[in-house]
Amino acid sequence: MTTDTSKIDQLIKTHNPFAGHIVVRPQQIWGKSYPDVPSINAHAANAVFDAIDKIKKGERQTVGITIAAEKGLGKSHIISRIRHQLQSGQDGVFIYMSKYDNLNKIQLQFLESVTSSLRAFVRPNVMPFQEIAAALINEAMGWKYTTEQYINKVFPTLLDKHSPKVVEQLTRKVLDIKPEITNNYIIQAFLWTLSVKHVNAANFWLSAKELPEAHAQLMGLANNTNSDKETQALNHVRQILDIVSDYRVPVICFDELDNINQTTDTGFTAAQVIANLSKDLYNNLKKGVLLLAMYPQTWNYEIMALPQAEAVIDRVLSEKADRQPIELRYLNSDHVVALVQTWLQEFYQKYQQIPPHPLYPFNESKLREFGKGKPTIRAVLKWCAEHFVKQEPTINGGDITEKIEHTTKVDPNPVKPFFLAELVHLKNPNDSLLDNEKEISQTLKFCFERLIGETLEGVTVEKVEEFTNDNHLDFKIIGNQQKVKIGVDVLQQPGGVGVTTALGKLIAYEKYDLTRGCLVRSKQIGPNAAAARENLRKLLKEKGGEWVSLQFQDIKPLLAIFYVWQNHKSYELTEDQIFAFIKQRKIVITNPLIKEILSDPSGQEPDNLTDDELPMKIPQSVDNSDDIKLNI
Questions:
Q1: What is the Cα–Cα distance from 368 to 337, expressed in whole angstroms?
Q2: Given this model, what pLDDT does residue 406 score?
Q3: What is the pLDDT of residues 327-337, one digit of tens each?
Q4: Alpha carbons 24 and 19: distance in angstroms, whole number
Q5: Are 600 and 52 in contact (CB under 8 A)?
Q6: Distance, CA of 442 to chain centre
Q7: Residue among 256, 276, 204 nearest 96 (CA)
């Protein structure tokens, strides 16, 4: 590292570490977080860690905690701190939910959030599902292998030496010590996560999604064919969490509960639905910490207004004698200095520079003066982004004064730093991002709405309609005086009944008033999915439809601007500013994925698809009996 003021000043001209980073996004909660000062609102995070300790000691079974704080005080910073501290230890496992797309099916969405959290890597190539699977086998068999040993050595050896039935044999051994688990397939799916070739399918099944029948047979898993999966989801997720809680305390965080513009069919808000869900979890889980974060007004006017509110409050504030949520405190001068110094320390270390002083280019007295106003974390970061400038001492009449020189170039559109920050967050995406059909389809719909009135690939876009009552088709693009009606479906699940059904709807042009069906998918549809492939043939060869390959590099900028729009209130941006930025930078109109959806169909399958097939052949010369000797 070097001390060179000229290099540092040049760095300041081109890089602003605060710009676009005033709000904690889910990517920071799961991935690399913003610099944190543990002393800021330590009481809130410590309440969670104290609860975990009490549960580990057997003093409590379940604890409910609610944080109520104004916008910008750091609720998500606290949750991020909790997540990263749990990741470094062995006491708890982090479950996070922040999206509430369909409040009428909240239990199924909660299951998806639980399984998504349990497949997030806690260290290189290891996810919580796999850690629990390893612990289950070790306890049942008296073995002492690490999770990495199971993944890299033990499971490949067992599957090569025996057959997939070895997993059924291990499942029976585990059930001997877990008789309370009524669904043996859940244990079996846990164990399959230790197989690199089958981990994705196991995760898919654990999310209550249907596997291709050949995959399900190979893995010995029964597909859930119940059309009303919502009614079974809570029991399914409770058994998953009970298995987890034998080895780690689940810490279940519900974030982003405010200002959601939807209610259930019976009129309940997102916060009210989650509060009731938390009550049910508190009553039924073996162990766990429930953490809710919301604005004070959400607590006062939504939670307190619930029917039988007392029963809910007793559970989401189970450790608070005063029956009031934990409050976050505004920053003082010391906090402001510590926060800014921590951010700058990471910034200078990244670029291997040693600044003239730890707060450079800021003045400590000005930061302390700013802190006297008791700002929020968000206000401090926003102020730093706007004042990240070079400060030069100049001689004026014999006195040294400070001259503030704005050397960081300011973009006339304030959207840019947030857009660039989202692109950075997407640099190393969660492995399941492309599998999030709902988020991809919402992003595409948002982007096509920005094209209304524009002509692209021979289509003048007039309207974009959502298929509100269909579980497969996502939206319809209408153009050219109603002559073009493109039905779009983002479909990432493995080939099977669900894929067959979705493709069947894409070719039902008369029923859904379409002139073209468009499948958006990154994965192959394998030869074993015969019914799905027949519907695909009809789509491409008979109906003039199209299969557009979903590639991360194409969807990435669209996701980034969609996330900016989703958070525009927190970023203090207007929709008009975002829409102007989209048009100015041509983010949508030049995007290859957008253009391909509108272009004339080729009638061919894409050639840049990923292989979605599992190996279906059982190894030769192996022990295929029901009584396998489990020797490594």
A1: 7
A2: 37
A3: 999 999 999 99
A4: 13
A5: no
A6: 15
A7: 256
